[in-house]
């Protein structure tokens, strides 16, 4: 079984750095013919980066890739495809208006002698592939008319039409119904019988029982452990996922707790496409003044959605009760949320938090313009003073207030966002992954700032998928899993293993 | 000192436009001795004032991340309505009344028609989430059709010297259209730099999602931009009508494209969030000097169009190259 003959793809000592973060330090992976490799790990462990390197979407900084014993260097995804490596993304990459057959052969259309697309051949071969995969869809149906599960089948057909030897699936079931998952698993078993090697990234262990042969667990850009899947226990997986030295982390100085600042009762959020399905179900918690409430969850747990509901971004689809400072409030828009004393620093700074074309100063005052306006006109001197107060307090490093915000480092951008919100004098600060993509020093500064702000009585809700960060910073901790609250813990009695146990969806030997 | 940084970078673009304008003036004055005279200077300013009036509104709309293809049609409708109610009054059949308008009342009616059309643009775009291109294309056709219905396809002429003063009058040595447009430029340049609305417009055009999450009323900002754009088109309609002493049913044909050209040459980004009213003034001046100079040099107006096309391409290409290097 473990003959070298069987090895289809081998990656050794792969490293990849992005500005400010080392995504992969020394990763390796070996894929064998007809076997499925489950790739596990926390968000940010480096799984997706490693896969994008295998699929040729980006080159590694160092390390070696071998396909069937031959060393390869991919400069773009087309080369990886030609080498037989296909990737099926979380976000499907099909063209909605084109038919199934056209999508399957996109970029590799069979041609007639006159160099025109041979539509007959294309349809015939598409129909064959669909039949092999036991898919009901017609080759002539526009892809947009298919259900998500069927679209995934089309992606797989596309991979197979290119003679794929390796198929990588990144969270393939995140948008699928139960039945569609079963169909996908049948497909996978069939692919294995044909000798295709598969990589399957997921958090849902129960999906792996039927299909996985091997497992690799990644942590901090390295392989934390690997084993045959059937020999692996849930406890072992959790240990590999979280096993990390926590002493290097910032130690939070707890602030004295004040009155209740935010009480959330029975928050639910309907799934936008699947009626009867929920993104959030019956979530309740409270935060007191001076407290940091941590919310931890893996990908798809509903962390961001929860903050979005609180901030009035889903007024139609959400239900439940929100009380601020003991008063029940109805929040139907971000403007209303801000008026009630909430502030949200979103996960994606550049897309959601900042206006990159505007200056540092303008971004800082954008939410609190009313404070520097008189008779409808902005008072420049007052605005400068106003902005400077917050930027100095947060030690934002910028050459001038007129500097375009896009030129600042991630850490400084995040501080500007905090400054912008603090200027609105909020009661509760909602932070979504506040330290993503920023360097170690800026992280420490942010943690110190949170200590200061809570000491002044601010209530903070800190959403993070980084377990050490949550364990270091949160006074209390709510764990979400698949849209439900699975635990509420005090920091004193929370351990990494315990949190990960309740964050991982059910499966493998769990109660 | 203001914090306004976005105009900070366009300062570079603006100084480029300034240099381009200076070069053109230099070349033209060497080539033609009729170019650099006070009369010709006023001539150019008067010629560009209508386009500039439209382009102020277009700047607001493009800054917000949109576009308005209906300003030329709104201009024609507003002019026709003002001329019509002034000349014939407004018959209210139900009450068997004929409403007579003073000159000022007629002008107000014209501007209000523009405001209403602009508001409708903004309403359709924010309420039904139509792409601005489509929504204003609809308004283009609606306003053109209404103008034809209102005028029956014939010009409305003989509006009297009082109304005509708006287009041909001279106040303190400067033509009225130049005065009006200059005041509007000053007001809107100030509004853009010194009011929350101006700041919000940049934010909405620069990053709509971030603006929404910052609690800005994105819809109201956009609605206001289109409404102001419509009002300014109405004002331009009055100036055109007054100048000719006649409301032409097909006035302003193609003006929307001239106006977009001026905004773009002035360094405003078509994707929104970057640019300024003063840049647009330069854009209008460049187009005006080009047209006027080529006319003085007896270049065929058809060639003028060709040259203008290349200027637009060059302006945007230079802007793109700069954006890549910063």
Descriptive terms for the model:
heterodimer, A: 511 residues, alpha/beta, Rossmann fold, 3 domains, six-stranded mixed beta sheet, 17 helices, 22 strands, globular, B: 326 residues, mainly alpha, ABC transporter involved in vitamin B12 uptake, BtuC, two-stranded antiparallel sheet, 13 helices, 6 strands
Description:
The complex is a heterodimer of chains A (511) and B (326). Chain A is α/β, with parallel strands linked by helices. Chain A has helices at residues 47-54, 77-82, 100-104, 119-132, 148-161, 178-193, 205-211, 234-242, 303-310, 334-339, 349-353, 360-365, 380-393, 410-422, 440-455, 467-473, 496-503; strands at residues 7-18, 21-32, 36-41, 62-67, 70-72, 85-88, 166-170, 197-201, 214-219, 222-228, 260-270, 278-288, 292-296, 318-324, 327-329, 342-345, 373-374, 377-378, 428-432, 459-464, 476-481, 484-490. In chain A, the strands form 5 sheets. A 6-stranded mixed sheet of chain A has the order 6-7-8-3-9-10, with helices on both faces. Chain A has a 6-stranded mixed sheet with strand order 16-19-20-13-21-22, with helices on both faces. By secondary structure, chain B is mainly α. Chain B has one domain: ABC transporter involved in vitamin B12 uptake, BtuC. Chain B is built from 13 helices and 6 strands. Chain B has helices at 10-31, 38-63, 71-88, 103-127, 132-151, 161-168, 176-194, 196-206, 208-213, 218-244, 255-265, 277-296, 301-325; strands at residues 90-92, 97-99, 156-157, 170-171, 174-175, 246-247. At the A-B interface, helix 10, helix 11, helix 12, strand 18 and helix 13 of A face helix 8 and helix 9 of B.
